[in-house]
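Our collaborator T.R. sent over the components below with a one-line note: 'Predict the complex.' Nothing else. No constraints on interfaces, no templates requested, no preferences about which chain binds where. So this is a plain run: every listed entity goes in together, and whatever single assembly comes back becomes the starting point for the next discussion.
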Amino acid sequence: MELRRVVNCLKLLNWETYLPEGCPVDDWSERFVSRGAERLPDRMPGLTRLRWKGHEVLVVERSGRVAIRLDVDTPHPERRHAAERVFQMIVDVTRRPGP
Amino acid sequence: MDPDAIAAIRTHDDQRGLSFFGETPYVYHCHHYNLFHDQTIDDVLGEERGAQVRTAAARDAFRQLLHDCFTAARAQTPAERIDLAQSLFAAMGHGKTAIEADPDGQGRITGSHLHYGLCWREKYGQKVKRFDPVDAVTAGFGIAAIELAHRLHSGELMAVEKQCLALRDPQCEIELSRGEAPRPAEVLQKSTMRSSPAQKGLWEDQIEPIVQGLLQFLGGVAGDERGLVQAFNVFVTAHLSNYYNATIFEAMHELERTSPAVAGSGQKLFREAGHVCVFNTFGNILLSPEWESLVGPLPDDPEAITAFNLAIARSLGFGHWLVPEFEVGKRLVLRTTTNYEAPFYINRYGVADRPRCYVTEGAALAFAVLAHRVRWSSKPSLDQNFYDSLFRGAGLGWDTEVVKDQARGDDVTEIVVTKTG
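Returned assembly:
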């Protein structure tokens, strides 16, 4: 898995990665919730929304794309590190099932 | 104001592609457009006059909206009205505000996450030192809220932004005092909007389900605990088209009166606002996880991308936009049976003597450019360099001709975009 910065004018706020092919999003989301993520109300069919430590994590069920939207109050110098922490958690949830 | 109460006053007219809070038309725009729009008003009028025009336009637009909301919610006391106004403003994505005012209207508005100030700081703050505050929309909104809460006449409150996030202050603070402000001007209402019957264009079967999906999504969107809407990788606002229109047309009329020789430059800037809108708002929607979830991966197909853009325009409340003719690589005809610019113009100023749908014209050109010159499947970065490579300099390669304009009294607005090189 690889963390990629989404380049637009927002300074290091948007990042993304992909779940491994075949990873079932429902199970994965449940595991993430059991590790402290909060499930947010669905806004779009096929799009799972979670929040972990103030950052939003969106998972596209059809492709396994995972968008990380950092809390805008994260200070600029800490954003890369914050994104890496979220990414590390995503990797952890993917590789180590169970709380 | 809870989401259910907002949903109760929010409607979308499918035939016209327009959205309303009660009687008040609104559209969605992202922070890129909002910042560019306001900067353009200031470029045309100068910072001081620009801020004055923007504040008055926001006041008039929000006054209409808040009046309807207070009536619908039967909010009677000043405290109820201020509370409702703050909730609605935050739900629209403009940021959480704290309004304090005496019965004579003097007071202040503060906010630590106002859309304009915060987004300016995010977009430009590390590169540019700014000297003028940016939150005229909040100032105008606050004036309207206080006028209506304390039942004051409009045009007697002034606002001065003393602190602003864009100036690297810790929060925004706007001071309100009694003074001579611009007189209120007429704004457009649902019941006074003229339009032509909807027509069908190309790809309708593809467009309509996407419109419905986006509308369903947008219906659930509301500001977070800070009053911000972060969606499609941008900050989004539900904003009043009366504000956008009043500022553009007041600025253009003033420019035509005072400096007619450079009026063409003003038109060019407002057409560019259409490029900025489509590149950033539409582009970021297309590349977003929300879009991928609704529609799927993006093809490198000019027809599909144009159909997608039409669906986006209709669902954002821009009007009933359609493409009746399309020749890949050569020609695109954008027609609107309704757009959000023309009805306002006619309602406030009467029939125009020249084309006035600047943003729609700019958007038409941007449709052609985004359809033909962007490899969407590669998920490009929508940054300033990419924008410049597409829309600035000699390489644009497409030109527009406005053949019909509803602001000029025509039955529809029609823009022909042609490949030039």
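Summary for T.R.: Chain B has two domains: 3-178, 191-419.
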